[in-house]
């Protein structure tokens, strides 16, 4: 029987490789450019033929000037740019060069909407060409000198950030008067000494004042939604008039050296001013309390001061998680009968100096019995739905304080839906996957998650821990 010949079938032709990078639309390429420094944007010319000149038409330019050596190459690259419209122009310069003026003229000629000038030295006046810029929508200026007679015309400006400036009252008032539709104002690391700063705007939605030396500030903004006061601003100098639309507020004052005097019932005027400010913010939905202010609230709790009657639904509190902070958290809970969400953030650093041994009245209690010994909190069984604790490092003393609070909330919050604990594990120096010092605390956390009695049957306890830079979930 003759063998059947096997029919040889030629292999299919290899599929032609497709260069997806070369076929991206210009809009996508420019969108990618918006996330890159200008020097890296120029380097993309080596990726493919289509990308060879794509960078020249990019409407996004982010320049970093670490040294004068790169100035000529930046000037040459800008001379090749063909974009007739620039959407974003950011300059971060450590050095001063005469060619920078040319770059700014380049951006202004293309009616840039998002302009950022960050200088590391106090040598450059704000360019006169920016004084009258109808096209500006967002402007950030850092360490620029402002002439005394400056008059700006920014009819389209919606976002303004002034950082590291020394301005007189009339200068900043002139600047604000030239921004009729301003929606976001950020004053950072500024000094406006011995004056009353008045901010009046019907368009303003966001106001951020960080680490500003101002003797007093009067805020009148009927459509303001978000207010953040942070740093070395003197609480006694803040007056709120007509902020009925406010939704969120943050009080995070950095230096409260008068705390010791508060406990000793001296210089109580600072406490009174903070209380007035909190009363003015009672109707916001979200309140954020910094660790410095929390210490003051702790003194109120110990002194037996009357509680606030706020409408806060969300409380975010920064705590160093010391024994004294428990009083402040208790005061907040009693002052917030409608709170639904409690967030406790534990920062990496202590931004206030507050030694327990100096304030024995705030720390004279047994932490495990603190919460069970407290009178009923109206908000905990009736409204609290979500608790988040972020930035917690396993530590014997802090773990006891934290776990006691978590256990109390789980046992009392009938409507609790979710408890999230974000913990940081220490790296072991003994070749073990987990530092032995954390094993006991980690066991307590797991035991709390699995075996703690809960008032809410539907309450979910999630423990996220970070180990070797990677997040995990228990």
UniProtKB/TrEMBL annotation:
CDD domains: F-box_AtFBL13-like (cd22160). Residues 18-52 form the F-box domain. This is F-box domain-containing protein. SMART domains: FBOX. It comes from the Eukaryota. InterPro entries: F-box-like_dom_sf, F-box_AtFBL13-like, F-box_dom, FBL13/AtMIF1-like, LRR_dom_sf, LRR_FXL15/At3g58940/PEG3-like. The lineage of its organism: Eukaryota, Viridiplantae, Streptophyta, Embryophyta, Tracheophyta. SUPFAM superfamilies: F-box domain (SSF81383), RNI-like (SSF52047). PANTHER family: F-BOX/RNI SUPERFAMILY PROTEIN-RELATED, F-BOX_RNI_FBD-LIKE DOMAIN PROTEIN.
